[in-house]
Amino acid sequence: MINKRSRYYGTETFTSEDPSGDELTLLELRAIPPTPVILHQTAGPADRLDHFADRYYRNPRKFWRICDASDSLDPFEIARPGAAIPIPPDK
Question: Across-strand partners of 16?
């Protein structure tokens, strides 16, 4: 179901029903591993997490690494102007 290269690979699933009675297969919450930070970058007014991921990892789809290194649950909260963006190493 989930590609081996996905960060969700190995995450447990469970089933539930939607309001119409159809069965859905859903993912459990993913455990976030301890994530070291190698530097902090200050966000500007036009910065987004995919911009930082592209700059530091050369892949904007790796923005989730930055999310994992943050204490915030909301990606938009992480990138507010003036915020210190934690940049973890690219593993």
Answer: 24
